[in-house]
Structure formats: structure tokens, C-alpha cells
Protein: ABC transporter ATP-binding protein
Organism: Nonomuraea mangrovi
Amino acid sequence: MAAVIVQGLGKAFGRKTVLKDVGLDLARGEFFALLGPSGTGKTTLLRILAGLERPDTGTVLAPRRRTTVYQEPRLVQARRVLANVTLGLPRSAREAGLAALAEVGLDGYGDAWPATLSGGEAQRVALARALVREPELLLLDEPFAALDALTRLQMQDLVAELCARHRPAVVLVTHDVDEAVRLADRVAVLREGELAVDRRIDLPHPRQRDDPAFLAHRALFLSHLGVHV
Ligand SMILES: Nc1ncnc2c1ncn2[C@@H]1O[C@H](COP(=O)(O)OP(=O)(O)O)[C@@H](O)[C@H]1O
Ligand SMILES: [Mg+2]
């Protein structure tokens, strides 16, 4: 069954056309990664999928239960961690919030203040806040871009594990080709308002970066981004 169906999607800001003709079908539980140079409209596409922005043309079908994790954790500093996770939810969500914190490796952090967290921990809270809403569509807008290399790898593993367990459809926007090939079932490149390549990655997990098949996918996506290896 499809989780997302996008057809003929177009979006312009003033005279600037950002998305021309985007078509995208995502199955339930499918992990889709979107690559593209900055300014190509990746965030705009995510905002449309999130229902935060209206397309000018085309149709978008997306599940109602959807949530976004951004590059910055966007925590409310005046609220403790658990209150951030359950923000906007009824009191009865407390147990689910604690369970989500445990799932992201933050057991016992419910009473902590956001200001006391490391960048990686704060991003884990943002993941827990997404998870507790049990999204059918999880939108990730460069969620690891601000983290150091080691933390980024740990967060990638965590997201892979959480998505394998909860099976939302995922759209991950990233600049990092290795990250896309490591995590996704399918990787596409957004260029000049269209999905220029859209390829399935049929490699078993965990994926090895030195596997020739991994390297072949990597080289292909890099070449579509104008980098030749
Ligand atoms: N609300 C807006 N008003 C005007 N221009 C916008 C708006 N949102 C995005 N843009 C423009 O659309 C283009 C694509 O932006 P964005 O989707 O953020 O790209 P990306 O996420 O790929 O870097 C950029 O040129 C940006 O300046
Ligand atoms: Mg962006």
C-alpha cells in the first residue's frame, strides 16, 4: 500500500520556479533519501509533504500522522526533556514519552533541561518527540548535518534501528551520499525541479562502505551531483 503519492508537483516563489514536475510514490515503511545541492528545493518538498506549504500544481497524498525532524533539535528551553517530547499531547502520553526516551538511549533524562544536553543528546530528544507521535511518514531534513562525525554515525545507526522497528515511510534529506546509500531503500537526486535519478539500493544491512556495490552506487550519485570519483 502506498504511504505517499505525489504527481506533477510544482512550486514557485515569485518568479522563481523551485519544483517543476516532481513525482514520487512511497510504499509504507519505505526509506527514501533525497540528495541535491543546496537551494534545489529539498526543504520545500519536505514542507509540502508535511502539509506546511501548498503546491502550485499537482497532487500530494500523504498520511495525516507525519512529523519532521530538522537539522536543529528545536527544543523549548523552558521545558524539561519529557515535556518537550510530549509537547502538545495529553497527559496520558507521559508513559509513551518515557518509553520513547528509553528507545533513543535517554533513559533517565526526562527531568533534564535542554540546555544541559550535548548536540547529539538534543537531537535524540527530537527523535523521541517524533517517535512518540507514531508517524506513518517521518520527514528528516538534514537531521545529522550539525553533528560531529562520530555522533553522526551513531545517530544513523539509531535512526536505522528505530525505522526498522516502527516502519514509518521515511524521507531523509541529506548532503551526504554515504549516509543516503547506507540507510535508504531508495535514493534520488533533486535537480532543476525534478527527481533526476531514482534508484533502489538492494544491499543487505548493515551495509559496508568498502563493498564494491556500495561504491558503485556512491559513484553514480556523486556523478549526478557533479562530483566524479
Ligand atoms: N518561503 C519562501 N519564500 C521565497 N523563497 C523561498 C521560500 N522558501 C524557499 N525559497 C527559495 O526556494 C529555493 C529552494 O529552497 P529550499 O527548498 O530551502 O532548498 P534546499 O532545502 O534544497 O536547500 C531557494 O532559492 C530558496 O531561497
Ligand atoms: Mg534545506
Notes: Helices lie at 42-49, 81-85, 94-103, 119-131, 149-166, 177-183, 212-224. The pocket of adenosine-5'-diphosphate (ligand 1) is lined by residues 13, 18, 36, 38-44 (CB under 6 Å).
